[in-house]
């Protein structure tokens, strides 16, 4: 009998009721939290799944630069806290997050913007958004690949390429948060973070059919993030659903003494936060315009079929 992959063997050890209760692929923050609450899932099991996805898929997709050696330990801590009744606020307790590799993390992960020039750069303090994720109990799974130096290296460097991560592989990796977009689409993390100066969250999200939010400058802290432009840089979520992206934004948005732009921007965070606007009937009564010239896909193509399916869902 051929040897089973480590996570396949792990799954066989789970009870049938657990397997029926939770679907790992395309899991959302809400479905994960429901499974946590019902006792059908642990953070360790979730991290094991994503680590296995990275082991299997990353040699082809090149979406991840490093995985954190502390990820399983952080997952165990989240499980222990949950078992003792200590549930952190924000909805990301025990949820694995991949960070674009220009976002600084203290401890075992490099922060190099994909460049060998900074290899061995271990920052002494978390970036502002990472500190917020940790306080919410999120598990830092690792770092996502990117266009080297957030594509501020030269006009002829391919999208999604870095010396450390190699070439990210999708139809077009597009903006510099390429690894975050690929990883979200390929179920290599529950949620991811990207950064944008000009299109680097929105473009890879579009090309990977995932959801990206580029916040107003200063709504999320840029402290501890390798910069390009103080007038344009922003950190935001890249996730598989609108709901997931909103829940991540709610955790990472807010004041940071290390980023003066947050002083003004946080005044516009709505009282009660962003999750209050997640309404299942939010499109009821709305009229949507479709840019047919932009979405002019060849008849019968995968893109045309996917677009029509999404259009009918909204209708």
TrEMBL record:
InterPro entries reported for this sequence: Amidase_dom (IPR023631), AS_sf (IPR036928)
Amidase domain boundaries: 46-313
Signal peptide limits: 1-21
Gene3D superfamilies in alphabetical order: Amidase signature (AS) domain
Coiled-coil stretches: none
Keywords associated with the record: Signal
Annotated SUPFAM superfamilies: Amidase signature (AS) enzymes (SSF75304)
PANTHER family, A to Z: AMIDASE, OS04G0183300 PROTEIN
Protein name: Amidase domain-containing protein
Upper lineage: Eukaryota, Viridiplantae, Streptophyta, Embryophyta, Tracheophyta
């Amino acid at each position: 009998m051929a040897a089973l992959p480590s996570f396949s063997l792990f799954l066989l050890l789970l009870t049938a009721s657990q397997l029926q209760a939770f679907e790992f692929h395309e899991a959302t923050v809400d479905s994960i939290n429901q499974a946590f609450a019902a006792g059908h899932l642990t953070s360790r099991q979730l991290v094991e799944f994503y680590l296995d996805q990275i082991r299997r898929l990353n040699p082809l997709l090149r979406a991840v630069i490093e995985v954190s050696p502390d990820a399983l330990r952080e997952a165990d801590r989240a499980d222990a806290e949950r078992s003792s009744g200590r549930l952190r606020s924000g909805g990301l307790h025990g949820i694995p997050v991949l960070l674009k590799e220009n976002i600084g993390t203290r401890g075992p992960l490099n922060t190099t913007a994909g460049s060998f020039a900074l290899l061995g750069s271990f920052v002494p303090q978390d970036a502002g958004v990472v500190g917020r994720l940790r306080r919410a109990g999120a598990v830092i799974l690792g770092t996502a690949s990117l266009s080297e130096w957030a594509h501020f290296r030269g006009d002829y460097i391919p999208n999604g390429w870095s010396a450390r991560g190699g070439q990210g592989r999708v139809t077009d990796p597009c903006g510099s948060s390429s690894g975050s977009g690929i990883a979200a689409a390929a179920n290599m993390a529950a949620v991811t973070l990207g950064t944008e100066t000009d299109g680097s969250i929105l473009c890879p999200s579009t090309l990977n059919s995932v959801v990206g939010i580029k916040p107003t400058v200063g709504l999320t802290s840029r402290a501890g993030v390798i910069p390009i432009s103080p007038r344009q840089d922003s950190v935001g979520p890249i996730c598989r659903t609108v709901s997931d992206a909103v829940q991540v934004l709610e955790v990472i948005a807010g004041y940071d003494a290390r980023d003066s732009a947050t002083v003004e921007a946080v005044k516009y965070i709505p009282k009660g936060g962003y999750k209050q606007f997640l309404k299942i009937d939010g499109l009821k009564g709305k009229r949507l315009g479709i840019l047919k010239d932009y979405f002019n896909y060849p008849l019968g193509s995968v893109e045309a079929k996917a677009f029509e399916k999404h259009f009918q869902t909204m209708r």
